[in-house]
Amino acid sequence: MKGLRVIQAGPLALIQDSGRFGVNHLGVTQGGAADWISHRWANWLLGNPVHSAALEIVMGGNLTLEAECEVTLALVGADLDARIDDAPLAAQGTFTMSPGQRLCFRQPKGGLRTYLAFPGGLDAPETLGSRACTVREKIGGLTDDGAPLKTGDRLTWRGNDPTPRWLPRSAQLPLPAQGVVTLSFVLGAQAAHFAGRSLYQAFNQQWTVDQRADRMGIRLTGTPLQSTLTGIVSEGIPLGAVQIPPDGQPIVLMNDRQTIGGYPRIGALTPGACARLAQCLPGTRVRLAPISATQAQMNHRRQLSAWS
């Protein structure tokens, strides 16, 4: 048999690919890997198309998988103290499991999310062009109900034994280092409705990642920002949009965000900054660093070229 059996389910392990696009008008969110950079590198290591479905593992929480056959896998992202039969496993690279061996993810030692890729990508039903799991909308995942992995589930994959690769030295993973994490940020049209003092505070103070953080949005706490707008006509929300609700504490909207919203937006994080923020544990200090839209586009194209 070809598969991995879930012996113990962690707090949140979801099947994710690059997400659903072109369906916002149906009220369906994007979804997909929160740290899309680590997700793509994990697939690249196995020679998979970089959009292939993989397993996004949050926190670890003693998620335990048992191999039913020999298989080569790839692991990229946070250091969740992964172990095979209690032997430490490096966080970035490929490895092979033999039948009966167990892979366990304990707890975060650096970062929050890691990505486990399988030969040819994980096998799961495709809905609206994606296998991405969205818990709130109850779509995607092993049984297309949006549910995280549970004990007794069985993971299978779509390909055969790959020829493993190694991460190039030039690969830059969005894992937070010690100190303050810098997040690139593009001002939006509604920034003009924020007082000059609030704009100064937005970029000249350290924000703290709040406990209120999930795949839908991440709240930052600090000196409140003030806008002359109390609300706007609801409009589409892009990945990384930074909303300012009445309490003045920014909310960064992530992959599982609602499709429209009416809070004023000061701007948006770049895709690379979203991946970096997705790896930040609560309590992490971050700083918003404004860049031009042109520079943001150049940076994004440069990152995409790594897999071309």
* Beta-strand percent range: 25-35%
Q: Determine the structural class based on helices, strands and strand pairing.
A: alpha+beta
- Taking Cα atoms only, what radius of gyration do you get, to the nearest Å? 20 Å
For the biggest β-sheet, the strand order reads 12-19-16-17-14-13-20
CA distance, first residue to last residue: 34 Å
Order of helices and strands: EEHEEEEEEEEEEHEEEEEEEHEH
Number of H/I helices: 4
Poorly predicted runs of 5 or more residues = none
How many strands, which pairing sense, and closed or not: the largest β-sheet? 7 strands, mixed, barrel
Please bin the fraction of helical residues: 10-25%
**Mean pLDDT, nearest integer?**
94
> Which descriptor suits the 3D outline?
globular
Tags for this model:
single chain; 308 residues; alpha+beta; 7-stranded mixed barrel; 6-stranded antiparallel beta sheet; 20 strands; 12% helix; 30% strand; globular
Question: Which helices and strands appear, and what pairs or packs with what?
Answer:
Elements: E1 4-8, E2 12-16, H1 36-45, E3 54-58, E4 63-67, E5 71-79, E6 82-84, E7 87-88, E8 93-97, E9 102-105, E10 110-117, E11 154-155, E12 181-187, H2 196-204, E13 207-213, E14 217-221, E15 235-236, E16 241-243, E17 251-253, E18 260-261, E19 265-269, H3 271-277, E20 285-290, H4 293-304
Parallel strand pairs: 12-20
Antiparallel strand pairs: 1-4, 1-11, 2-3, 3-10, 4-9, 5-8, 5-10, 6-7, 6-9, 12-19, 13-14, 13-20, 14-17, 15-18, 16-17, 16-19
